[in-house]
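Human: Cast an eye over this sequence-structure pair and say how the chain folds.
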Amino acid sequence: MKSRIHPVSRPVVFRDRVADTAFLTRSTADSGERVTWEDGNSYPVIDVETSSASHPFYTGGRQVLDTAGRVERFRRRYGTGDASRG
């Protein structure tokens, strides 16, 4: 690799507060907040909204979408077809 053109990679803890899990990995991301990890060292911590521990695709959970409302809104907006037909 060429020197001085790649960002610095360092150990970072990513924390998913929804699933109450955290994992240590390498990243170029940085944070002012730090956390003490299981090995006793302090690492920058980045809070994420979704990880594989909380995402419905990985957990097998389902997300209910209001598809009927979306279809009706589309038909009202673009005036295609009869609104009573599905």
